[in-house]
Amino acid sequence: MEASSTQQYSGNTVLSKVLLSIGVLLVVWNNYILPIPATLQWIIFAITILIAGVPHGALDHIVAKQNSMLQKKPFSSTQFYLTYLSRMALFGICWLFFPSFSLLIFILLSAFHFGETDLLLPTSLKKNLAATAQTIYGLLIVLLLLLTHTQEVLPILSIIKKQNADILSIVFETRNSIFIILITLFILIVTFIWLHRIQALPYKWYMDIIIRTSIILAIIICLPLPLAFAFYFGGWHSLHSLENIRKYLSDSGSETISFTALLKKCVPYSIIAFLGIGILIIMATYLKTESVFLFFFFVGIAILTAPHLEVMSDMYNHLRKKDISRS
Question: What does the record list as coiled-coil region(s) (predicted)?
Fold first, then answer.
């Protein structure tokens, strides 16, 4: 059993405390002071997506260029966009012909992506072991987002395939949902015990993970879906990702990049994403159904996830190597 340092790249403590405080305040306000109207919930959801959710993905080309530079490989914008768009198209075709399979893949990819961003593991831990633990951790987050908001999620997922409606209904039954979540939590605990036998971590690391994760999970459970998604994806995940990107570009370049300067770099590609969201809103208005709009939005995020995850994972691999060289 070997003691080891942990990765230092995920966001910063001040940002974490601010976001957790906002999440707790939302829970207290919505549940004990005055319920937040559904319209305002969706406005908050839209604001977080526009300010952080979209911009953190709009930097993929800049991050990919930096990845190539650190790997001492030539970078071609044309090749990057062709590869990026072709993977989006491939995943889009999969959603068209194999929606159930694509949903499963999307959940697993999202789980790994969330876990890789959130869960700081020993820098010397083998990549496949770290990826396993991070995927299980992220899966717990994804399952809580989906399974604790049955009334909002089930109509969206039921659009995927009508014949899967019965299966989804069984999965989303309260008793079955609790069982699935508890099994995932148990597997995560066993994974941590197994990891500890491989590489010992300080007591403070475990306490930080337990306290932080417990607060995040409680916030997700206690908030309605729009606010839960806004808190975790639009706030926690996206803002920490932006901070990680800012650190990455600053450490790798000749000057420190401010958060404002980073957001300015997002503008050109964020505008394209906003146009896409605008088209979805127009379609939803025409179809006059919230579930269809959310389904298109859900699939849109899913199609973007695969190429985005690859770029971000390469970035985190470089940051892991930098942490190892410092330790």
Answer: none
Number of independent structural domains in the chain = 1
Does residue 40 lie within any of the structural domains?
yes
Q: Is residue 172 part of a domain?
A: yes
By the 8 A CB rule, do 247 and 9 touch? yes
Mean pLDDT, rounded, for 216-245: 93
**Per-residue pLDDT at 171:** 74
pLDDT of residue 184: 94
* 285 or 142, higher pLDDT: 142
Judge whether 20 and 215 are in contact, CB under 8 Å: yes
| 188: CB partners within 8 A, 6+ apart | 133, 136, 137, 140
Q: Which domain holds residue 72?
A: 13-326
Tell me how far the alpha carbon of residue 274 is from its chain's centroid: 19
The lowest-confidence range among 77-91, 281-295, 296-310, 312-326 is 281-295
Please report whether residue 4 resides in a domain: no
Could you tell me if 112 and 138 are in contact, meaning their C-beta atoms sit under 8 angstroms apart? Answer: yes
1 vs 176, residue with greater confidence: 176
Amino acid at 106: F
pLDDT, residue 163, reads 52
pLDDT at residue 1 greater than cutoff 50: no
**What is the Cα–Cα distance from 40 to 29, expressed in whole angstroms?**
13
pLDDT surpassing 50 at residue 324: no
Helix and strand tally (H, E) in the chain? 15, 0
Q: How far is CA 184 from CA 139, 180, 243, in A?
A: 8, 6, 29
Q: Report the C-alpha gap between 280 and 296 in whole angstroms.
A: 7
CA gap 36, 33 in Å, rounded: 9
At 304, list the tokens: 């973007």
